[in-house]
Amino acid sequence: MTEIEERLLSIIGKGEENAVTQQRITALTGLPPRETRLILERARKAGTVICSSNAGRFFPQTIEELEHYVLRVQASVRAQCIALAPARRLLGEWKEQGHE
Question: What is the pLDDT of residue 28?
Fold first, then answer.
């Protein structure tokens, strides 16, 4: 992990009451929002649990916080799958028809 990645993760508080907004992370690191999101994405892929809510990003402190985050992300994934289904059907139809 790089020094900037460690710094970014050290900014994130434990518990939702200590959540840090994207704007605050950007201000404290001096990195553009896109870069901070990529760093957080890499940390999550590496196994670090970073929750997010309307309050910002935080490390879970209680089972309730973690459960709420998991349920919220699952609902988002389900909604995305529902939205994706018609596009996948149309893609299949177009491929069958030789559409370009």
Answer: 93
